[in-house]
Amino acid sequence: MLAEGFTRYTDLGLSPVIVQIGPIALRWYSMAYLVGIIFAYWWLGRAIRRPGSPLSQQHADDLILYSTLGIIVGGRLFYILFYDQNLLAIPEAFQLWNGGMSFHGGLTGLLIGLMWYARRKGLSGLRIADYIACVAPFGQMLGRLANFINGELWGRATDVPWAVIFPGGGEVARHPSQLYAAVGEGLLIFVVLQLLFWKTDARYKPGFLLGLAIAMYACARFFGEFFREPDAQLSEFAMNTGLSMGQWLTLPMFLIGLWLLFTAKGRRKRVEPIAGGSSVA
Fold first, then answer.
1. d(C-alpha 112, C-alpha 125), whole Å
2. What CA–CA distances, in Å, run from 195 to 64, 206, 234, 254?
3. Angle at 209 between CA 99 and CA 30, to 5 degrees
4. Distance, CA of 224 to CA of 246 (rounded, Å)
5. Contact 208, 46 (CB under 8 A)
6. What are the pLDDT digits (tens) for 226-251?
7. pTM
């Protein structure tokens, strides 16, 4: 697990900054959010043209704003409350460019914003959430790739051939756990949900795709945490409880996901399309 014979992050030619002009810098982490939002908008535009869509194009346009705000506010708030309460001070709490976002918080904020909007417009919040759940893993994948490029959130010490020596992680070879997460928490879930959305009638069972996405993420995150080094400020917490904070937060997620999955069939009913398309029994 010592440095000899392993890939050094510094030899990969990576930088957190894409381009910088004076004090203004475009970073990969910010780009991940931007590309994820643009892709979500494009994908949602295609998906709602299928029969039985729970929302119109105008709804989709509005929803992107509410979803983005929910992800940012929820992600930052959860990170501060559960991972680093030192950031409660101002202006640190608002310095998002320095990192510090929680997926669990982002998901919670997203769902709150989505449900609030659906309630205001008289739409089915669960069916809309199913659509959003199908595209969210793509953004998660980009975020984890950005974590790797930033050289942050590295894994535990190991001697596997593909181990990487990260700056700040000492002269120790570590799991590139960010890449594991990009595949398990992002790509894999995204592919499974795409197949179900486009090839089956799963989207007509309110809460099914959302529940599956949540349950799959919980499993991937729980397993992946065994390869990821706990946050420095929470290493003692992990040792005392036997599980990392990320693993504890996935437990209620998994239960909620299972409940949504097993109750989805009972919520299925005749679906009337919002704009165009045919209804489905």
1. 10
2. 23, 17, 38, 21
3. 20
4. 10
5. no
6. 999 987 666 777 777 888 888 998 99
7. 0.83
